[in-house]
Amino acid sequence: MSLIGKEIVEFKANAYHKGEFIEVSSEDLKGKWSIVCFYPADFTFVCPTELEDLQDQYATLQGLGVEVYSVSTDTHFTHKAWHDHSPAIGKIEYIMIADPSHAISVGFDVLDDEGLAQRGTFIIDPDGIVQAVEINADGIGRDAIGLIDKIRAGQYVRTHPGEVCPAKWKEGAETLKPSLDLVGKI
């Protein structure tokens, strides 16, 4: 069942952020745009490349008013150890949420049969509503740069009711106003 257009599940979890353990809840994701990036496990192979790539786009995303959260079924202690020992993960400035109970992964429907989170990326609007979902197979890494255009499109559509962003839309490009006049003409 698709989570698009649905409010995120309520949760509270421990997290690692900038050298400290903190508590994060679903309420923290409201009031701003958020990206929640699930990944299978700490100390693995594809995951650090994805999370480092997300960090490389973090300043741009923050400039758009977006907060980033990574989530795995590891503990916050494991997140700290990984942050302390991996050059790629040591760069991360965003919040790393722990989900050892699997509650968040189940709520976002990304828990696999082995008890690990799938590679799921969720864009959530300031009301806590899921606007975009991407889930990749375990061996296929994600590219964070594409999230920037999706966020910009989501923000544009939110502030311009009645307009939609076509394929490959970039900020400042033409949008569409769905109407009977457009049917069959695109």
What do these coordinates show?
- By secondary structure, this protein is α/β, with parallel strands linked by helices.
- It is 25% helix and 23% strand.
- It has five helices and seven strands; from the N terminus they run βββααβαβαββα.
- The longest helix is centred in the C-terminal third of the chain and has 15 residues, at 145-159.
What's this, in brief?
By secondary structure, this protein is of the alpha/beta class. Helices cover 25% and strands 23% of the residues.
Secondary structure: elements and pairs:
Blueprint: E1 12-17, E2 20-25, E3 33-38, H1 46-56, H2 58-63, E4 66-72, H3 76-85, E5 95-98, H4 103-107, E6 119-124, E7 130-136, H5 145-159
Parallel strand pairs: 3-4, 4-5
Antiparallel strand pairs: 1-2, 1-5, 3-6, 6-7
Question: What sort of overall outline do the alpha carbons produce when their principal axes are compared?
Answer: elongated
> What class, by secondary structure content?
alpha/beta
What string gives the helices and strands in order? EEEHHEHEHEEH
Largest sheet: 7 strands, mixed
Mean pLDDT, all residues: 96
Rounded to the nearest angstrom, the radius of gyration is 17 Å
Could you tell me the number of beta strands? Answer: 7
Sheet with most strands: strand arrangement: 2-1-5-4-3-6-7
Binned, the helix content reads 25-40%
> Proportion of β residues?
15-25%
Weakly predicted, low-confidence segments:
none
- Gap between N and C termini: 30 Å
